[in-house]
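Attaching the record inline, Q. Sequence:
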Amino acid sequence: MPKQNSFYDVLSAAIRDVADHGYDSAARIAYWQEEIRKAAERTMSPPHVMERMLREALAAVYRRMVEKGQIVNLHPGVARFTLERVKPQLRAELDRRILASADLIKLNRKQAIEKTLQRFAGWSTSIPKGGSDAVDKRETKDEIRKSLASLPFQDRRVLIDQGHKLTAAISQTIAEGGGAIAGIWHSNWKQPGYDYREDHKERDGQVYTLRGNWAQDRGLMKVGDAGYYDEITAVGQEPFCRCRMTWLYHLRQLPDDMITAKGRGELADIRVAS
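Structure, as predicted:
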């Protein structure tokens, strides 16, 4: 089988050809667009390689958080058996995140190729018939290949973001299965270089109530100033959000203004009994 030219070689040939001949026919541009598309697709990892990479990366997050137990740092007071009980749901969430990551990477790659073809078409149709000696081929090449050149970075961003989303989803599944009553929002707005959202900064330290929890049903707690958690976007839900939630399971973990008189009475009874 003859050796196939690299994407860089194909793009270089396309730019030279158009610089020499100019936009003399739609067929010339269409030919090079197809050659550029095929060369771009050849540079990308095959789907099975990409899926293996995704599975390994997200499985590592799962092992660290679930199998090695780091997720309990976000659940002070949760019973250990809760983790075992919800493990099938956590494994299902891992599989769901792998599929979501694969879809996002495929979409990013498709968009990168389309943007590359659009840039090439925009440039090539601007060259007059007969060609031009004024073309800076290196600069043109760098501009056209910009989207594809950034793909490895985009792929890494997807993996990192999906890792945060997996952690957040695992954490919320444990909270709901373990009977959490509220959660404290933690923003990374103080982290140097982190592109935080202003409204997420404002949520930092706020205590959000899980609607319909057991303590609320028994009249032991009330909704605080922050409101219900389901009234806002969840941690990790928005693209590249790295916020996290510490989940609360007991009345004694709540701010005093969220505990009702009945709740304070129950806490007092518990202290006497102990």
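The chain is about 60% helix and 5% strand. The mean pLDDT is 91.

More tomorrow.
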